[in-house]
Amino acid sequence: MRRRTIAAAAAAAVATALAVAAPLSASAHIQVAPNQAPPGGYALLTFRVPTESATAGTVRFEIDLPTKTPFTSVSYQPVAGWSTEVTTSTLPKPVKIAGATVTTAPTRIVWTADPGVRIEPGQFQQFSVTAGAVPETGKLLMPAVQTYSDGSVVHWNQPTPASGEEPEHPAPTLYIDDAPPGADAPSLVTSTPAPAADGSTVDPAAIGLGIGGVVLGAVGVVIGVLALTRRPRPTRSAADGDGGTA
Question: What is the DSSP string of 163-213?
Fold first, then answer.
């Protein structure tokens, strides 16, 4: 009975480890976190940009901001080795926001790597901005363009359908009044990086990997205990008395 219980515990631990690892392996595409924000306020948005090429590095990343329901203000967090440019443009049509008529707004953000700097294959970089006021609308698509050091360009501009089936190049999307596809499913990649005591940020993916490490460590402990229970017990000879009198 003891052996069956320990074996079941080991199997459950392995299943948990696989469940932790699966969302992390599926999060390679460009994403914005968090992917939800209430209207009216300012949102801290972090774009996570992985290099998916095996031979080239990412040297430029740009985001197109909405113009029909625009943000009125955008500010960015500097990234070492990268220059940032925010473009403000005249809107196609004036927009009423909080009783005021808005004719210009931020429409694009471009991050460009300094010479010799790039996001290497197998690495990612995070680019953070604050944007607001968040408009009263269902969702905001923010198409992205990723440029590699070999000149290749990837356009992340495809909307994710309500079914949640991710397209090949999904556009980073901020959900406001609409619910994200698969909102009932837990996710490890939709939380804003939490500020640490020293002002740095904690990457949710790193937290997930840490949890996975703890789970795998637990699996090792369970397997070790199982091995001990299978070790044969030493037999006692007649000479090994219990200290009694003959």
Answer: T----SSBPPEEESSSPPTTTTS--SSSSPPEE-TTS-EE-HHHHHHHHHH
